[in-house]
Write a structure and sequence with these properties.
Structural class: alpha+beta
Number of strands: 5
Order of helices and strands: HEEEHEHEHH
C-alpha cells in the first residue's frame, strides 16, 4: 500500500517527480486499450518518496512530451485518489489469495514537464498505432514471454 499517498490525501493537488521505467497499456471495458507508463521512485516536490512505483495513464498532456523513454524524468501536478485493488469476482479461493483492499494512485495530471534534456520521438497519431508501437516495438519481448507463460 502507498501510505505516503494516503497521508497526502485528495484535498489539494501536489507536484510530483519520477523516473519512467517502461511503457505499457491497459484494456478498457469495451476492449480498447489505453497507453500507460510505469513511473518509479516517485517523489513530491520536496524530494520525499511517495511511491516506489505507479502506473500512470499516458494522457494527452504526457503524449505532448513525445514517446517517453526509460530513465526519462518527468514532473507533473496531480491529485491523490483511492481505488479498490484485488479480485472482485465470485470465486472464494481466488478472493482469499487476492483480497479486496484500498490502494492509492495519482490522477488528473497537469502541467507535465520532461526534465530530461533530449528531443523525444513524437507519439503516433492514433491510439491504435500508439498501442501497436508499445506492444510490438517497446515491449515485444515482455509481451511474447507473457503470452507464452499464459498458455
Amino acid at each position: 500500500m502507498r501510505d505516503a499517498l494516503k497521508q497526502i490525501g485528495n484535498k489539494e493537488r501536489g507536484t510530483y517527480v519520477g523516473v519512467v521505467s517502461r511503457l505499457g497499456y491497459k484494456t478498457g471495458y469495451n476492449g480498447h486499450g489505453k497507453p500507460t507508463f510505469l513511473i518509479i521512485n516517485l517523489t513530491d516536490i520536496n524530494g520525499n518518496l511517495v511511491a516506489d512505483h505507479l502506473w500512470i495513464n499516458y494522457t494527452k498532456q504526457f503524449q505532448s512530451l513525445g514517446i517517453l523513454a526509460t530513465d526519462d524524468e518527468v514532473q507533473f501536478n496531480a491529485r491523490v485518489s483511492s481505488y479498490l485493488k484485488g479480485y472482485q469476482g465470485n470465486d472464494s479461493t481466488i478472493r482469499k489469495k487476492h483480497p479486496i483492499q484500498y490502494d492509492y494512485k495519482l490522477e488528473y495530471p497537469s502541467k507535465v514537464r520532461l526534465l530530461t534534456k533530449r528531443k523525444p520521438q513524437s507519439v503516433p497519431e492514433t491510439n491504435w498505432e500508439f498501442l501497436q508501437y508499445i506492444i510490438l516495438e517497446e515491449n515485444k519481448d515482455f509481451y511474447l514471454k507473457r503470452a507464452k507463460n499464459s498458455q
